[in-house]
Amino acid sequence: MQPSRVLIINGPNLNLLGIREKDIYGNLTLDDINNIIKENTKENNIYLDFFQSNYEGEIVTVIGESINKYSGIIINPGAYSHYSIAILDAIRGVNIPVIEVHLSNIYGREEYRRKSITAEGCIGVISGFGYYGYIMAIHALINNINKVIKP
């Protein structure tokens, strides 16, 4: 089986993990999480690329540039989840399976965080499992790519 390439996108303020709101997001930094993801998925015959930006346009651009480059995308759009039609349109435009991940359970938080606009373009959402949500998303993408399960 040919290796798949997966892009993991993290949105605004996720570069502050380990510093901001530790009671919600924990003590791990984004680099810690990326290293845990790599370690937990190294036997899955996939290549991982990581991208983080605090800028909506950069996220839209990297999604658009993923055509013919990635088999799947995992995205944590952060606060952009709740209002970015631009990111939603980019997700819909690339015809690549995308899974949205949130470290915290957005459905158990403030009312304005409970609606994800960007999730409408994704094949699924994983919310509330901390860093392990990314690992879950990778396994779900592998299943989707290999057509083991269908959404």
TrEMBL record:
The active site is at Y25 (proton acceptor), H102 (proton donor). InterPro entries: DHquinase_II (IPR001874), DHquinase_II_CS (IPR018509). Its EC number is 4.2.1.10. Pathway: Metabolic intermediate biosynthesis; chorismate biosynthesis; chorismate from D-erythrose 4-phosphate and phosphoenolpyruvate: step 3/7. Pfam families: DHquinase_II. Keywords: Amino-acid biosynthesis, Aromatic amino acid biosynthesis, Lyase. Substrate binds at N76, H82, D89, L103, S104, R113. It is an enzyme of class 4 (lyase). It catalyses: 3-dehydroquinate = 3-dehydroshikimate + H2O. Belongs to the type-II 3-dehydroquinase family. Homododecamer. This is 3-dehydroquinate dehydratase. The gene is aroQ.
